[in-house]
């Protein structure tokens, strides 16, 4: 049986939830709080990427066991537990990130436990911190319990206090907001100008014309005072 990702759409029943997989990519449904044990065990639907909803709190045992083609998963900020062997033999997994983080292999500050062998025998073995390095840095909350051999020996576990992780998440949130504003500002200003034109704000008695006139007269008055 060919278990490679297939083009097209597949609909799966995952613990009573309707999960749509399109070309190997899926966004788990809003409202799901627990991904059941064995949910995508053994290449089921041949996943490439998964985005978890903000409602998801836990990932069950062997949920993605042996999904060879899974390359990335985005975890919600409120995730608290990852079950045993959840990503065992996910050999292509190159990105595990929180929605509030852009870093690879960074878990949410809320995470309380990672089960045994959760990420064992996976891509973490082969994704170095930087060129020339043979080890991968995995960032987890200092308070999280990590099961036996949850990560390969090649991984370096960085334990960070949850408060520090949340501070970094907030900083990243504002940074993303600033970037979004910078991208949207020209279009927003253009839209406001068009709206003012439609409302007649630039007409002889319009509000914009009156505002500009008042500013001009004020500037002239200041210039006369300092002359």
UniProtKB/TrEMBL annotation:
It comes from the Eukaryota. InterPro entries: LRR_5, LRR_dom_sf, Surface_bspA-like. PANTHER family: IG-LIKE DOMAIN-CONTAINING PROTEIN (PTHR45661:SF3), SURFACE ANTIGEN (PTHR45661). This is Leucine-rich repeat domain-containing protein. It comes from Emiliania huxleyi (strain CCMP1516).
